[in-house]
Amino acid sequence: MLFISIQDLEAAINYWRSQSPAVGEELHLCPEAAALAKPYALMIVQGAQRASMDVLDEAARLAIQKFLNVTQAN
For residues 37 and 13, is the Cβ–Cβ distance under 8 A? Predict the structure, then answer.
């Protein structure tokens, strides 16, 4: 089972926000950052330092995988 740390989730959200800043008066997050925001918030509320990749929905899993592919390639 693979795990993602809260630090990695935060870094991924910040990465996606830098790639596609929030827009509009409502400051909507890009789809990738929005997909990662819910598991990130749940981890904060639960006091968790890591979560299983299995609990992420498909959009969040794809967003974190793309982030890890980009950052680990550099």
Answer: yes
Note the pLDDT tens digit of each residue in 50-62.
Answer: 999 999 999 999 9
- 8 Å CB contact between 1 and 50: no
Cα(64)–Cα(40) distance, rounded to whole angstroms?
12
Sign for the pseudo-dihedral over CA of 52, 54, 59, 61: positive
Give the rounded distance of the alpha carbon of 46 from its chain centre: 17
Q: CA–CA separation, 4 vs 54, rounded Å? A: 10
Give SS3 for 23: strand
pTM value?
Answer: 0.89
